[in-house]
Design a protein that fits this description.
The protein is built from twelve helices and 13 strands. The protein has helices spanning 53-56, 67-77, 81-99, 116-131, 145-154, 173-181, 199-215, 238-252, 272-286, 300-304, 311-320, 328-335; strands at 7-14, 19-20, 26-28, 34-40, 43-48, 64-65, 102-108, 138-141, 163-167, 184-188, 223-226, 257-258, 290-293. The protein has an eight-stranded parallel beta sheet with strand order 12-11-10-9-8-7-1-13. A three-stranded antiparallel beta sheet has the order 3-4-5, with helices on one face. Strands 2-6 form a two-stranded antiparallel ribbon. A hairpin with a 2-residue loop joins strand 4 (34-40) and strand 5 (43-48). The radius of gyration is 20 Å and the shape is globular.
């Protein structure tokens, strides 16, 4: 598989990301405090969890540490070593993705605060912090146009135009932002009021939003069309439908890239790393050349080298394409330990 033209949009700098308290990513510190372990420049380090974190992050009470949100908080509000740890943690997360092959870094701070002004300022700081230190463009991801604009304003453009994630008929106010900043864009097939699962409606929505983008001068080369990935755990035909929509869109809309949030396909299933890798492979076969992935867990180079004749690949492919309805054979192989 030739992955040389594939543009991975690294998805790991999201303030929704969690690790389990007491799991392998967290450690106990002297005095009863806890922290999140990380490595920076070859050394083991710890991102401390402040005493008031349970008040700031209710998920902590459920044993979940929103580690990216924690790093942003420490980098902005911590003092001394805590501030340094927050900055290092974020920089490490960015560098690991770039080294694994990311062409963009997706940045989302929506869960940092309920206050719109604070979210915008947090995005402005984080986009500026990363953009000054990383030599790939950022993808600004937010449900708020104000927050998106703040991030775009802070991006260093010498490394290439930033990206907006995402624009759709549900978010037509983002069209003006993309044109104003000369940005690339993830272009979602979402309707104004729902998320279509059929091929025809997806393509019809693409027709409408592409026309709006072209009206403000956005070239198709800057459009990364997302036909919308849904979990095969909820409908065994979701994977096949996405692949068909990708192939149809590739043939109809000359000049665009096709992509999507590929890891959504494995939600709720075991062996997610395997399913995600095989799905990326199948999507590239269908015409995709970009996508939101975790490049550390699913490097494009590893996808390119997958053995399509292996039992693991064959079983995963059958599940993802609906040939193995509801994953009966896949789950049986998982329980028998044949996928490890």
């Amino acid at each position: 598989m030739d992955m040389s033209d594939f543009q991975a949009i690294g998805e790991n700098i999201h303030c929704s990301r969690v690790v389990k308290l007491g799991g392998r990513h967290t450690v106990e510190l002297p005095g009863g405090r806890c922290g999140v372990a990380y490595r920076h420049e070859g050394a083991d380090r710890v991102l401390p969890i402040p005493d008031d974190w349970p008040e700031k992050s209710p998920a902590y009470g459920d044993g979940k540490v929103k580690h990216v949100a924690l790093a942003v908080h420490q980098a902005l509000h911590g003092a001394g070593d805590d501030r340094r740890a927050g900055e290092e943690y974020l920089l490490n997360a960015a560098r690991r993705q770039v080294e694994a092959g990311a062409s963009y870094l997706d940045v989302n701070v929506d869960e940092c605060s309920h206050d719109p002004a604070e979210r915008a300022e947090t995005m402005r700081w984080l986009a500026g912090f990363l953009s000054e230190r990383i030599d790939v463009p950022l993808s600004i991801d937010s449900s708020s146009a104000e927050t998106t604009a703040a991030g775009l304003e802070a991006c260093r453009t010498e490394v290439g135009p930033p990206m907006v994630n995402s624009v759709s008929l549900e978010r037509v106010d983002y069209v003006e932002l993309i044109g104003r900043f000369g940005a690339a864009a993830v272009v979602s097939a979402a309707s104004k009021n729902d998320l279509p699962t059929g091929v025809d409606r997806r393509l019809a929505n693409f027709e409408k939003i592409i026309a709006l983008l072209e009206e403000v001068g956005v070239a198709r080369e800057r459009m990364h069309l997302d036909p919308l990935v849904f979990p095969v755990s909820t409908d065994p035909m979701h994977g096949r439908s996405f692949l068909e929509a990708t192939a149809e869109a590739k043939g109809r809309f000359a000049g665009v890239r096709l992509g999507g949030g590929f890891s959504n396909v494995s939600f709720g299933m075991p062996e997610r790393k395997l399913l995600n890798g095989v799905f990326v492979y199948l999507c590239v076969e269908a015409g995709a050349s970009s996508g939101l992935i975790d490049p550390v867990q699913t490097p494009p180079s590893a996808v390119a080298e997958m053995s399509v004749d292996s039992e693991r690949f064959i079983l995963a492919k059958a599940f993802l394409t609906g040939e193995d309805a509801f994953g009966v054979e896949f789950l049986s192989a998982y329980r028998e330990g044949r996928l490890g």
